[in-house]
Each structure stands twice: as structure tokens, then as C-alpha cells.
Amino acid sequence: MNHYFLALIAAFVCLSTFNFLESQEIIETSTIDDVLPLVDEETWFLVDLDNTLFQAKQALGHVNWLQHEVQKLIGAGKSREDAFHSVYPLWKKTQIMTEVTPVESNFVEAIKQLQNRNIIVMGLTHRQLFIVPETLRQLNSIGVSFEPSAPSQETFNISANQPALFTQGILFVDDFNTKGDIFRLLLQQLGKKPKKIVFIDDKKKNVEEFAQATLSEEIEYVGVYYTAVEQEPQIYSTELAEYQLRFLNAIMSNEQALQLLSQETESQEIQSSDPEFLYKIVSKKQWQESLLRNEVVSSPLDSDFIHLTTEEQVTNVIQKFWNNKDYIILKLTSNKLVGVLINETNPGGTNKYYHLYNGSIPLEAVKDVTIFNINNQN
Predict the structure, then answer these.
(1) Does 2 score more than 70 pLDDT?
(2) DSSP notation for 321-352
(3) Percent of the chain residues topping a pLDDT of 70
(4) Residues 273-307: tens digit of each pLDDT
(5) CA atoms of 351 and 349, how far apart (whole Å)
(6) Cα–Cα dist 223/21, whole Å
(7) Among candidates 343, 341, 334, which has minimal Cα distance to 362?
């Protein structure tokens, strides 16, 4: 008799699993018009941002540019994590200035139609926490706000592989988390979940991975692999991006130019012997704060001035201060540092150290990033 009941339970579980598998669907389309009929009043509509809802108006600052730069560094031998973090300072700077345009002209109107029907519509993006303000500005510029239709008006910090954030109706996942995993953590904090999800993304991999999350939560799912950006005139061009990068900085006034020229003349003799690159070692927490603040955050040891080191002294500094700790080595372009750079040699004359007085390290001075994790020895 016990075997009979166990068989019935097993059959029920298999049937339930089969039913939920049947409710998992992935479609491909290049128009939002095909998606709207899939969304009903019991659906949460989840919208990716880059190359789905919008794209940059120019090559530099386009998400394809970010991906190209990362792949270039990986091809040169850097790890994926190091490659992304090396590009982040410049990525942030471009996003401060980048304007966006809808990928498909009627996408914005489609979102508003769903919101007017009181359907939950929210953003879901791999964008990083340090460009949340820039992202909100870009959305506002095309007339989109997810806040009125969000599943919650609260802000949630989500602890994961990398910090994630839900704010103003957008789930910022970060590059090193999966969208499905972070969404499940969000559901736990919300204490509720939908009957059905329609998720639209320009990456097929994201759509397929998200299906696993909805299956685990027993949520009906339609994943939309959205290819509209491939049908539109191509905005990104490597050649154009590289040329635009030469003119990234704003034009300065004559007064500012004269002041800087005067400062350079006064310090030319001292700086002529300075190395092209200097190094700063920071913790992972300091680096995350630096990305948010747009300048490298100093440690308590830097209360009077910022300690820097040459490439030759990096190993000594690590052994002295960073033994058995995670750390990040920042390679800095010396002539982009702000303040007075002074070099000092120890009494024996064997080691040279650098101090930055009355200054700061702008994020744009970070030339390269190397991450060291004691757990996996990266």
C-alpha cells in the first residue's frame, strides 16, 4: 500500500513539473507589437534596457562599445572581472554625457499603454550600481518611468555575488550576477510573486537563463528574445567610437587653460622625472565606493596625503599591508592625477615613494585594474 501511495505522489510531482514546463515559452521577435498581446492583468512585464528599450545615440558610450572594450582586454589576457573593472571608469564617464534613443519608436508608448491598464511593468538590467543616476536621467529623457508601475515603491539593497539594487521600479543586477537569481531574491524581499512573467531582452542567453528562475518559482513564463536593434541602422562602430574618444573631454575656458599651463610650467622640472604610471592598492569596498563617487576613495592612512607607489614597489606594499586580504591594484596615469605630486626616497636611497598632496585621483586616471581574490587566487 505504501508503494502505491509513493507512486501516486511521484506521478503527481511529475505531472506538476510537466505542466510548469508546458507554461515556459520562448519566442523571437523584432517588434514590440508582437509582445503586447502576451501581457494580461496577471502578468508582470520585465523590460531590459540597453539594446532593448533604448540605445546610445552615438558609438562611444553604446553598450556594444563597452562589450567590445571588455572583449579586447580579455583577448589581451585579462580575466573577465579585471577587464570589466578596467573599462568601468571610462564607461561611467561616457554615461554621464550619453544621450539615448528608443530602439523601436513605439516601445515607449507600449509601456505607457500597459501602465495605464495598471499592469506591473519594471526594468531589469545588468547595468551597474554606479551608473544608477545616469540611467534614470536617460530614461527620463525618453519619457519613461517604471516607478508608477513597479511591484513596490520601496528601494531594496540585495546581497549577492555582487551588490544589486532595486530602485524606482528597476532591478540593477550588475555584470557578475544572473538576472534570474537576483529576481528571485527580490521576490523574497517583496513577499509576493506574479502568476505570469513576460521578460523581453536582446540577449537570448538572458531569456533562457531567466526561464529557470520562473520554473523554480512555479511562475508561468514567456521569454521574448528581442532582435529589433539588429533591424535598425547600426549606431555602434569601433572606428567611430575610437575617434569620438579623442574628443571626450569638454572644451576648457582660456582662463582655465592659462591656469593649468602656469601650474605645469612651475612643476615641469619636478614632474619630468615622474613615471608615466603610478599604482594604488584598494579594497573591493573602496573600489565600489570609488565607482559611485567618480574618484578613487582614500583609506584612513591617506588622511594627510594620498600614498602611491611605483610598479617596483607594489609587491612590497602588498606583503606589508594586504597579506591574506582581497585587494585591487589600480594602475594610474600620472598626468591625470589632481594635486601636487611629490616623490621621496628612503634614507638608504633604495626605494622611491610618491605622495599626492591636496589632491584626488579622478576615476579617469585609472588606466588598468587587477583584482586579487585570496579564495581563488585570481
Answers:
(1) no
(2) H-TTS-EEEEEEEGGG-EEEEEEEE-TTS--E
(3) 84
(4) 678 999 999 999 999 999 999 999 987 667 678 98
(5) 6
(6) 13
(7) 334
**Per-residue cell: 213:** 528562475
With contact defined as beta carbons under 8 Å apart, do 60 and 241 qualify? yes
Write out the three cell numbers for 364: 579617469
Are residues 125 and 165 in contact, defined by beta-carbon separation less than 8 angstroms? no
Range of the domain at 223: 22-231
State percent of the chain over pLDDT 90.
Answer: 72
Contact status, residue 146 vs residue 166, Cβ threshold 8 Å: no
pLDDT (average), residues 194-203:
98
Q: Is 42 helix (H, G, I), strand (E, B) or coil?
A: coil
CATH at 113: 3.40.50
The upper half-sphere exposure of residue 60, i.e. CA atoms within 13 Å in the direction of its Cβ, equals 17
pTM of the model: 0.84
Distance of CA 83 to CAs 127, 364, 369, Å? 16, 15, 7
Residue recorded with cell 573600489: 287
In sign, the C-alpha dihedral spanning 216, 217, 222, 227 is: negative
Q: What share of the chain is helix, strand, coil (3-state, %, to 5)?
A: 45, 25, 30
Picking from 186-200, 298-312, 360-374, which range would have the lowest pLDDT averaged per residue? 298-312
Question: What is the average pLDDT across 144-159?
Answer: 96
258 is a domain residue: no
Residues 203 and 91 occupy one common structural domain:
yes
